[in-house]
Amino acid sequence: MPDWKEEIAMRLRSLKLAPPREAEITEELAQHLEDRYQELIAGGANEKEARRVALEELSDENLLARGLRRVEKEVPQEPLVPGEGGGNNFLASLWQDVRYGIRMLRKSPGFAAAAVIVLALGIGANTAIFSVVNAVLLRPLPFSNPDRLVQLWHTPPQASFPGMTRFPLSAANYLDWKSQNHVFEQTAIYSFARYNLTGIGQPEVVQAGSVEPSFFAVLGIPPMLGRVFASDEDQPGRGNIVILSHAFWQDHFGRDPHVIGRSIEFDGKPFTVVGVMGPQFRRPPLAQVWTPLVWTNKERSVRGEHHFLVVARLRRGVDLKQAQTEMNTISSRLEQQYPSDNRGWGAMVVPLREETVGKVRPALLVLLGAVAFVLLIACANVANLVLAETLARQKEIAIRTALGASRARVLQQVLTETVLLAIAGGALGLLLGRFGLDLIVHFLASKLPRATEISLDARVLGFTLLVSVLTGLVAGFLPAWRLTKTDVNDALKQGLGRAGADSGSRRTRNVLVVAEVALSLMLLIGAGLMIRSLWLLRSVDPGFDPHGVLKMTVGIGKAKFTDPAQQSSFYDQVLQRVRALPGVESAGVIDDLPLSGGSHQPVAVEGRPVVAMADQPEVDVRVISPGYVRAMRIPVLRGRDVNDRDTGDRPVAILISEAMAKRFWPNEDPLGQHVTLTFFPDRAREIVGIVGDVKQDALNGSDPNATLYVPMAQITAATYAASTVGPFRAFSMALVVRTITRPTSLVTAVANAVHQLDPATPLLDVVTLEDFVAESLSQERFNMLLLATFAGLAVVLAAVGIYSVLAYGVRRRVREIGIRMALGAQNGDVLRTVIGDGTKLTLIGVAIGIAGALALTRSLSSLLYGVRPTDPLTFIVVSFILTSVALLASYIPARRATRIDPMVALRYE
Fold first, then answer.
1. What is the mean pLDDT of residues 576-589?
2. Co-location of 745 and 792 in the same domain
3. Quick check: is 248 in a domain?
């Protein structure tokens, strides 16, 4: 007698039913086959013929459906069609699909693990970048009614400041703006200051915001402890009070709630603590404390010097356009009243949000787009995995369809499984995203506005959940749709372990691989452009030699010296001691190092027509000591360097840069010419040397700045007495020390040399000049690193996708390949066939990716230096790299195909 039960069990195995259910179904169908077999024998058929006919009837879908329905009617507690019969409402069917999906994934742990890991990489990257975008771009500023807050700027005359669109305000112009406008509810002026903190541990420099008393009212933020400044506390003699930031209060006072009324020593003077701000208040961004902006009547009347910032709050009902129109009117009025100072100076009203985050928005949006591409590639990869997995379940789905399951029910079942995978991937992605977020904040805390606000808040968690669900739906839709196209009759007639023709599924897998390659190429080209840009930036000549130089800032407070001669003498003594140290080649000081910006001044050239200050050209002005040019190895092109004989009682000497020489004296010799600094008009200054151009603002600056160097010893008390900038205030200088040994080995010796003169002088920003230059590119480097990481991840996923499709194809074509080899095909023929399939998909993807990159890389223009968004070399090299990776991914399954034994393949089912 035939063993019907074994045959039936083999055919039902793909359903993965519970053992009791499978036994019941097997018993029912075995009895039917035995009855049919005996009927055929009685009709005259032999045993072999009777068995064949009975088994053919077993493959009939109607017979299976009748048998399965009969058992289903008898045992209804677990429907064979999930969601059908377990409740008519959607939630009941969905819950059954979830339970069934979990069981199915548990039975395929390898597939589930691979899919979860791939999705976790894509979702984790999106979570990390969205957390940054959420905190920096989407979350409202932590102020009261932040949409009404604006920043006010001057627009400078282009003749004096070519290419500059905004400029700080002068004190007198601000006071006129404040009194004449009708569009602002409140305004406040502020600037930056540095203080030497003593009496609390080691001496250190504290960054301060020097603010008008109305500053906190404009922003609408009350203090966490104490009070803000009173309206009359900006008067001379009343300004020795301070408000602490939350971080400063925590670090220096251990969150002492009784800190109000305590005294702090800044620059040797006591300041009384009157308030502590909350943790979210960081305006200006780097301020650790706030002090009242105390200014004299002389300083209030200065109209030509611009170094103040202004924040304002719009009146209710006033929009940005109205405010800009009124400020234009006021600026025109002031230009007519004070033509000498204000000709060409306009006004600009900028939303405070735009002012805070506008510069980083392009980079963040590019990175957000990059991780979206990575997620799409992950979706395509998982779709391929799910498609391969669901093809093995064609017979199961056919039986369920025969039982009456609709296509919508089949779609729901498969999509539920992929959404479960995606949610698991999202949970793991949250962990990866949290780790990535810590790295981003660590590397970009000083470059990224609102970095302290970045966190995994409710919006980020909601985003991750939404992305996970959408990812599951996107990754599962194509496989589920292909599965609903299965021919029920053909699927039920297939033998164990065999699926029917899947040409449609193969086309779907190929389309997914092409999409992965195209998206990967676009990401890789973007990363390649960023890498080339950074490489070109690193090769830019900054105008000085950073190798072998130690750099530090000597933190002199404003009240340290009362006379510029005292400050000059202090730095001269510091330099004498440092130059005497073993291993020191040269040393000097400067007020603002290259690559960090600095001050500008209008200048007048002796012998040329006198023009109003508003029409005078501006140049960068740097104060240096003898030895600075030599320590930096800035070439002296003509004339001489400043030296120790350039003191206050000698003729005033200056150096100018080559760019300034070309701008002011294109057809004559600048040496011996005289220039007057408009803010220091005490004496005309003679040009004694021309030095090479230096990158003053950034390495990616275009034209070199016209720069003028003034010897520190020739900035005298008489200079300030004749100036328009107010009384002398001591200022910190950057010390550069060129050594013949390793620069860091001299840190202690140089620090001791400074502290022998003044133990209370703090030293900050102690780094090598090479590290300082490298740090100036930190944001560009990190943007490149993130984009390259995402591109590398995309390439890996694309390579895995190509490998998986070809490996699956080889498994599907074992019999075909075996026949070819039996008929004489060589290993090389098989290799060419399989690799050719992979190469064809890759080249199609590369062609589509190049077209997409040509359209999308233009968004990178603002992030690039020295390279076009359509750079041919980058496109060619990146395409070659990706094609090579794809060929390697194709080679592995191709080699496996050459090892197929023809005899085994011919028996393969």
1. 95
2. no
3. yes
User: What global pTM score does this model have?
Assistant: 0.74
Distance CA 136, CA 362 (A): 12
Q: The domain containing residue 712 runs over which residues?
A: 556-761
For 214-266, the DSSP string reads THHHHHT---SEE----TTTTSTTS--EEEE-HHHHHHHHTT-TT-TT-EEEE
Last residue of a domain, one of 703, 736, 761: 761
Q: Helix/strand/coil (H, E, C) string of 413-432?
A: HHHHHHHHHHHHHHHHHHHH
Dump the DSSP string for 469-486.
HHHHHHHHHHHHHHHHT-
Is the pLDDT at 60 greater than 70? The verdict is no
Q: Quote the strand ranges of 522-594, DSSP E.
A: 549-554, 584-590
pLDDT bin (cut points 50, 70, 90) of residue 419 is: confident
Do 498 and 475 contact (CB within 8 A), yes or no? no
Which residue, of 344, 378, 398, is where some domain finishes?
Answer: 344
Beta strands in 316-414 (DSSP E): 346-351
> In the chain, what is the greatest distance between 2 CA atoms, to the nearest angstrom?
134
Return the closest-CA partner of residue 504 out of 383, 387, 386: 387
Q: Are residues 414 and 456 in the same domain?
A: yes
861 in a structural domain = yes
CA distance 191 to 212: 9
Burial of 413 (C-beta count, 10 Å sphere; 0-12/13-18/19+): buried
For the stretch 193-218, pLDDT in tens is 888 887 777 778 888 999 999 999 99
DSSP 8-class letter at 603: E
Q: Is residue 546 part of a domain?
A: no
Whether 390 and 451 map to the same domain: the answer is yes
Q: Are residues 621 and 754 in the same domain?
A: yes
Distance CA 186, CA 218 (A): 6
Highest mean pLDDT out of 3-7, 739-743, 837-841: 739-743
459 and 518 share a domain? no
User: Count of domains in the chain?
Assistant: 5
Q: Confirm whether 551 is domain-assigned.
A: no
